[in-house]
Each structure stands twice: as C-alpha cells, then as structure tokens.
Amino acid sequence: MKVLGVLGGMGPAATLAFLARLQALTPATCDEDHIRVLMDMNPQVPNRHRHEPDAKRVLGEMAVRLRDMGADVLAMPCNTAHAHAGAIRASGLPFIDMVAETAAEAARGGARRIGVLATPGGDALYAAALQALGVEPLRLDARRQRAFLKAVFQVKAGDVGPAPQALMRDLAAGLVEAGAEIVIGGCTEVPLLIGADDVAVPLVDSAEVLAAACVRICREEIATAGDARQG
Fold first, then answer.
1. Which pick of 83, 85, 138, 156 has the fewest CB atoms within 10 Å?
2. 30 catalytic per annotation
3. Which pLDDT tens digit goes with each residue over 209-226?
C-alpha cells in the first residue's frame, strides 16, 4: 500500500474534512487496512491569490519534506493551490490532481454545461479542464465571485452557520438557473456549507473525488494482489 503525503492547511477545516472522507471511503475491517498518511498541516502557506510566487515556493518545499518523510504519492485538498502543481511535481513524486479528477468525474455522465463554484484561481483551472473535455463551464460573474469569497472566508473564520450556507445555496441555484446540468464544488470549503440536497442538480464534491482517488491509487497494490490470487 502506498504512503500518502497530504499538503494541508488550506484551510484547516477543509483539510480535516478531507481526511474524514479518506477514512470513510477506505474499505477496511481493521486499523491495518487503512492508508498511512503523512501530512503537513500548514495554514501559513502564503495567500494563493495575492502572493503566488511565495505560495509556489512553500508548496514545493512541503512536497519535498513529505517525500523525505517517506510519502510515495502526494495530494492536496485545495483547488486554488493546484495552480502550483508543477512545483509539487518537482519533488519527483506522483501528484493526484484534484481538479483533473473532479472535472473528469463531473463530465463522465455526459453533461454538456457544468457550473463551477470556486475561487477566481480555482475557477480558471476548472474552466480550462472542462473545456479540454469538450464541456462548457458556467462560471460565477464578478459580483457572485465576491459573494463566493465572502462565504469561503466565513468558513475559514469558523462560521458555517445559516448565513454562509444560504449564500452558497443561492450561488449554486444561480448556476442551475443559468443552465448548469451539474455543479462542481470546486473549493474544499463548499461541502462544509452545502450538500447534495441543497442543489437541484447533482453536486460533485472535489474533496470527495480526491479522497476516492487517493484510496484507489494508494491501494492499487492490494487490488492487484487480489486480482492475481483470483486468477
């Protein structure tokens, strides 16, 4: 079983929620069936919007530390920071791309118009990923983008109450009204505010998709061994 290295802390609550998903999605009957996880929970990563060069440097350093600690594969439950995936891959370890995995999952059912709830940086990454798959991304306009960021920063401040929940529901509803057949929760704070029952179309949770991909990739050797025994 591969050792998973997690670049975390962006933000802390979203990272902890991701780890809970990772545990819940792992088929296990005892402790030893679970994935070994090495994590750098670093809320001090420079702001991914305003200080991109510093963020890139710190993320690269985190990836190298996790590699040197014994990680075999890396993952990061922060969509916006995937703009610096190249710095993470420079560590020489495989990096599970949450944006690519989520875009592929959302497009798998044949939807042609997919709404995106994401920060400006994450929104650009998802737009490119969806367009590469032949899908039209539906994006928040500037006013709704500001509202989205307000809700996200409320979560980072510890507020997951009715006000940010209602704001996020309204933003999702606006994408559906614009024609979205599926909505991507392209920021790991989104599922801390809304779930599938809050959106009129399927909601694809990027943190859930990443957790499932980590389980699949880290347990590949177990699956392969089981297939060999059955053969």
1. 156
2. no
3. 999 999 999 998 654 544
